[in-house]
Structures are given as structure tokens and as C-alpha cells.
Amino acid sequence: MLPEALARQIITDHERHPRGKGAIEGAPHVALDNPGCGDHVTVWVRVEAGRLAEVCFTGRGCAISQASASLMTGALRGKGLEEARALATRYRAMVMGEGPADPVLGDLVALAGVSRLHARRKCALLAWNALEAALAED
């Protein structure tokens, strides 16, 4: 687990300077909302030869939802579908407090503290739920 100050810095940086923000013309996408706090995210995916060639998002919401989406795009871009799903499973377990802050998650471990904040778990998982739905459509 990262020191709290470093985790906060990573989250703030990704919220203020999101990576992977934008749409992919003609790619499958799914929009989801978190009515509890007003977060909205749309995730686009382009799969080529069994790999996530592009993963992008648009949306608005709290720092957690936007940082999670930004970190997700960087962590998954270029990964094979099975590798991406395994990473998503590890991330989900960490956020839900059911698994460790696995170093394989890279900077995503900055969101490990969300596991203690039940109301924020939905924020941290919103983009990942949209990704899962978009991959099911592809």
C-alpha cells in the first residue's frame, strides 16, 4: 500500500490531468451513472487481435471516479483481454476490501483506501463497470 500522501497526490493528478480522456469514433462504448453522487462516465474500447488497442473515457464526477477512469485507461491499454480481465478482478477485490493492494496494479493501488469508504466504492468502480459492459458488447 502506498503512503497516504502519495496516494492522494496520484489521485489528484489523475483527476486534474486525466489520461485517456476522449471518445473513440465508431468503437463500442457504455455510459453509466452513479446516482448517489452524480458521477457519469462513458468508456470506449477498441479491441484488435484480442488486445485493448485503445481505452478511453469521458465523464464528470468526483475525484475518485475520474482518477479511477484515468488510471484504468493507462493500466489496460495494450493488454490482452484475459490479462485486462485479471487486472480488473484484482482491482475490484482491492476496492471492495477483499484483496490486497497488489503491486501488479501499479498506480491503481492509490485507490486502495477506498475500500474503507463504502459509499466511495461505487465511484472507484464506475469506469470499470462500464468497461466490462463495453467489452461484453464488442
Characterization of this structure:
The protein has 138 residues and is of the alpha+beta class. The chain has a single domain, classed as Alpha-Beta Complex (Sufe protein. Chain: A). The protein has four helices and three strands. The protein has a three-stranded antiparallel sheet with strand order 1-2-3, covered by helices on one side. Strand 1 and strand 2 form a beta hairpin. The N and C termini lie far apart (34 Å). The model has no long low-confidence stretch (mean pLDDT 94).
What is shown here, in short?
The chain is an alpha+beta fold and 138 residues long. The chain contains four helices and three strands; from the N terminus they run αβββααα.
Radius of gyration: 14 Å
Adjacency order of strands in the biggest sheet: 1-2-3
Which sheet architecture does the biggest sheet show?
3 strands, antiparallel
How many structural domains in the coordinates? Answer: 1
The CATH class name reads Alpha Beta
Tell me the helix content.
40-55%
The chain-level mean pLDDT equals: 94
